Amino acid sequence: MWKPMTLQELLKLIDAAHVGFKKLDATLWEACHLPQPELWQQDPWGYEGCGFWVVAVAGRRCIYYNDIHRGFCSSEFTRWGRIDSFSEQPDHLQSVLVSLTKAEALA
């Protein structure tokens, strides 16, 4: 049975990913990560687990942990606290971070 990720589990996952960051990625992370991950809503996939953990924001895009598919994803958001779209293609935090900043630069 699926169980939502706890904040403590998420923080351990972020710490492990952060160890592998290259210098540029670490700089990007410092620029856009939230001081504390926040649970944001996403219709309808976020209902069962009370939302998804958002860990970083750049402009109108966010990085969140998709604990259904076990990986990080990015999405646009139009209102703080609400993820606009759900992704079934999770990736490693470092990859999503780089793609997020590139997408924001093109916007």
Protein traits:
107 residues; four-stranded antiparallel β-sheet; 35% helix; 25% strand; globular
How does this model look, in words?
The mean pLDDT is 86. The termini are far apart. This protein has helices at residues 7-19, 23-32, 93-106; strands at 33-40, 52-58, 61-66, 71-76. With 107 residues, it is an alpha+beta fold. The chain has a four-stranded antiparallel β-sheet. It contains three helices and four strands, in the order H-H-E-E-E-E-H. It has one domain. Strand 2 (52-58) and strand 3 (61-66) form a beta hairpin.
Quick structural overview:
The mean pLDDT is 86. Helices cover 35% and strands 25% of the residues.
Q: What are the SSEs and their pairings?
A:
Blueprint: H1 7-19, H2 23-32, E1 33-40, E2 52-58, E3 61-66, E4 71-76, H3 93-106
Antiparallel strand pairs: 1-2, 2-3, 3-4
